[in-house]
Each structure stands twice: as structure tokens, then as C-alpha cells.
Amino acid sequence: MERLHVWTPRVLSLLRIIAALLFMEHGLMKLFHFPAAQPGAPDPLPPLLLAAAVLEVVGGALLVLGLFTRSMAFLLSGQMAVAYFLAHAGKSFWPALNGGEAAILFSFVFLYLVFTGPGEWSVDAQVRKRP
């Protein structure tokens, strides 16, 4: 067990990086139709979806780098909570039926990062180590 504990900061970094890359994909689909257009997204995007897409791309990129991690994670966790209630909750009580599982998971993974920080592999950690 002790050998696993040593890896905790690195695995936390992996969780942050993978979650942020998946999150960025949603914004890239809305803004640039990459790797494909987001299903159901109107074109052109209304201002609220445009703001969400920019947050997803820019905030996701900052999380990938581990830069301003806690504040970005707090902002993005809130964004996903709002997105869940605006876009999904009204369709059904059950997330598996309303399509909101990703929004819930992103919200809670980002909330977790608010409390844990970015992990060992991050710009934030490197800045903290400087004398």
C-alpha cells in the first residue's frame, strides 16, 4: 500500500490532465467543429453557449498545464453545475436518461481539484518549488 501512496500526486496529475483534455473537446466541437460538430449545438452559437465553449477551451487548457488550477477548477465546476441544471435536469430526474452524466462528473472532478490542487506534474507545483 505504501508504494501506491507515493504515486498519489502523479496520478492526481493524470486525472487532471485527462479530464481537462476531455473537457476541452466539448469546447473545440462547439467553436471549431473539431473533431466534429457538437451534436445538437446551434450554428451560430448563442452568447451563453459561446461563453461556455470559450471557458471549456481556455479553462481546459489551463487545467492541462496545471496553471491557476484551483481557481479554474472552481469556475469550471460551477459552469458544469449550471450546465447540468439548464440543459439536462429538466429532461428527466435520472442523469442516465437526461444525458447529464458528463456534466456531473466534470463538476465533481473539478470540485475535487479545488481541494487537492493540481498534483505533482503542473506549472503550479513548479512555481511553488522555486526558491
From TrEMBL:
Q: Which organism is this protein's natural source?
A: Caulobacter hibisci
> What UniProt keywords are attached to this protein's entry?
Cell membrane, Membrane, Transmembrane, Transmembrane helix
Q: What is this protein called?
A: DoxX family protein
In what way does this protein cross or attach to the membrane?
Multi-pass membrane protein
| First and last residue of the signal peptide | none
**A Pfam entry, by short name:** DoxX
Localization terms from the record? Cell membrane
According to the record, the segments passing through the membrane are 12-33, 45-65, 72-90, 102-123
In terms of superkingdom, the source organism counts as: Bacteria
Q: Which family does it belong to?
A: Belongs to the DoxX family.
Q: Which InterPro entries match?
A: DoxX, DoxX-like_oxidoreductase
